Amino acid sequence: MPSKRTLSFVLSLGLVLNYCTLLKPEKSDSNMLAVLALAGSAPNQTAFLETYSQIAFQNYSDAYADVVALRQKVTAFTAKASPSLSELNEVKTYWRKARRSYLQTEVFRFSKGPIDNPALTDGVELEPLMNAWPLDEGYIDTVILTGTITKQGLIDANAGDCATGTCPDGDSAKNISVGWHAIEYLLWGADAANNFTPGNTITQTNFTTANGSGNAAAKRSAYLLYATEILEAHHLQLKNAWNPSLSTSYVSKFKSNSSSFENILRGIARFSGGEWGGERMTGVFGGEQEEEHSCFSDNTKADFYYDAKGLDNLFNGTYTGSQTISGYGLKNLLGNESSYIKERIATAELFCLNEFTEDVSLNQACNSSIVSSRFDRMIATVNVSGSATENADYNIFRYQIQPAVQEIAKALQRSAASYGVSIGDDGLVLE
């Protein structure tokens, strides 16, 4: 026997059809198709929002678990008076591993969700405290040498102006003191120009619990622990925000908000065309290594690959982590743009992740059709002579991968228009 919901839909459809028969003959066919398309899109959008919320919760749950594992390693490491090089390298490996799950969550940005909507996270915008970039390296060096380090002090400093002479790119508004890249800098140190390895100015001797809290190495250990604990707390906030079992979570509001689907399309377009395929990728066209998104660890290829993987998850409605999600994907809602976007996501994933020097088991075997060079060596070929492979890889990145990411944004603009939604170029860096 049909359910009440089915009968309701049939009755509604009947009303639509009756209405269409009243239209003028020359317009009835096109108008009826348009009305039916809109009638059919609503349940599909509902199914997609359900899958989206499930992936968000599971992805943030995995990211939180990975940061907990990183923090546990940091806690043990920073408790040692004389940590070993192998112990430092192990912490670096855990940083890299934790990045993989976090980066897949970046596709949720700019969609009025908890990651960058302070109204949903107790008045605090979390993203600038988690993954803001570029870093104010001078602040970190100064506070370790001459400052007093407290957990709240690091959080407060993140919102302040950077010190004169240490501002990245001369931008006096930036003072990034916590988050993924602060931890990265504490572990690897600066990646000097023309240094074709990760940053190597920091060794295990730069960390200790000996000689009191005024010692620079002791303060580096304290800074590292506090920054990791802060990152852990913020990941927990995001996990809880998407937890459907919590009555105070964002999920029910998200699924009942008629603007959620529009917000998602706009958010992914802005992330693809503004952040990921915009500032982050176009910033390295001049060959400057310090413009890499993860310049201290040379983890940038993984940054870009897992950003693409995050969109891939939503496009297909699937997620593989500690739990597997299989549901309704964005691909079913994008009409004629679906196959176009699918091809460009595949292009955006053309990175061979072979930069893991701390744990070689993370390296992949590479072939010539994808970017296999070290990212900093590859982009440096703009200014210096590189190998044939490095030059070829730069061309793949510059003329295939980066344009593909921006074309995703343009395709989403066109897709949104079919739903009567206008996505302008605000926040996009389209070439």
What does this protein look like?
It comes from Leptospira perdikensis. This protein has 431 residues and is mostly helical. The chain has two domains: 61-255, Up-down Bundle (A middle domain of Talin 1), CATH 1.20.1420.20; 258-431. Helix content is 56%, strand content 1%. A two-stranded antiparallel sheet has the order 1-2. A hairpin with a 3-residue loop joins strand 1 and strand 2. Helix 1 crosses helix 2 (25-78) and helix 10 runs antiparallel to helix 14. The longest helix is centred in the N-terminal third of the chain and has 54 residues, at 25-78. It starts with a helix and ends in a 14-residue tail after the last helix.
Record keyword descriptors for this entry.
431 residues, mainly alpha, A middle domain of Talin 1, 2 domains, 14 helices, 1% strand, disordered N terminus
SSE arrangement:
Elements (H helix, E strand, L loop, with lengths): L3 H18 L3 H54 L6 H20 L22 H4 L6 H10 L4 H8 L21 H9 L27 H26 L9 H6 L3 H23 L17 H17 L1 E3 L3 E3 L11 H11 L26 H6 L7 H30 L14
Antiparallel strand pairs: 1-2
> In what range is the share of β-strand residues?
under 5%
Give unreliable regions as ranges.
1-39
Element string (H = helix, E = strand): HHHHHHHHHHHEEHHH
- How are the strands of the largest sheet arranged? 1-2
Total count of strands: 2
- The average pLDDT is 86
Radius of gyration: 24 Å
Number of domains: 2
> What percent of residues adopt helix (DSSP H or I)?
55-70%
Assigned CATH architecture of the largest domain: Up-down Bundle
Principal-axis shape equals globular
Q: What is the CATH class name of the largest domain?
A: Mainly Alpha
Major sheet = 2 strands, antiparallel
| Helix count, DSSP H or I runs of 4 or more residues | 14
Domain Imelysin-like: 57-347
Keywords: Signal
Organism: Leptospira perdikensis
Protein name: Imelysin
